[in-house]
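Worked example 3 (structure in, sequence out).
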């Protein structure tokens, strides 16, 4: 896992009831990652789901990462985690498919 560092965030809605949602990011993990190749099958599946997967990263397997979370790489870009897949490798790992978020959350 030598390609960079990613921060994983939980998302909390801090808006008052009845108002437009405002996301607040609560840091869960800081992990090293390895960049993975974005295969044609994954691109096709993401288009079927109407999501544009921009990159796939592999991180050490930890509990509590879900498709409801956000990820921020060391370059400051914020992503939504589209899918979390277990990779049968050593050390135990997770593959995270990321889509770029245009709107920045607070946090």
């Amino acid at each position: 896992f030598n390609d960079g560092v990613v921060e994983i965030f939980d998302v909390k809605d801090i808006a008052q009831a009845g108002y437009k949602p405002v996301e607040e990011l609560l840091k869960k993990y800081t992990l090293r990652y390895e960049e993975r190749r974005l295969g044609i099958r994954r691109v096709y599946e993401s288009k079927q789901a109407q999501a544009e997967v921009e990159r796939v990263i592999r991180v050490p397997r930890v509990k509590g990462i879900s498709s409801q979370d956000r990820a921020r790489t060391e370059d400051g870009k914020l992503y939504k985690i589209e899918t979390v897949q277990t990779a049968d490798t050593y050390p135990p790992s997770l593959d995270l498919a990321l889509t770029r978020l245009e709107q920045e959350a607070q946090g």
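Notes: Residues 1 and 33 are 5 Å apart (CA to CA). The helical segments are 40-48.
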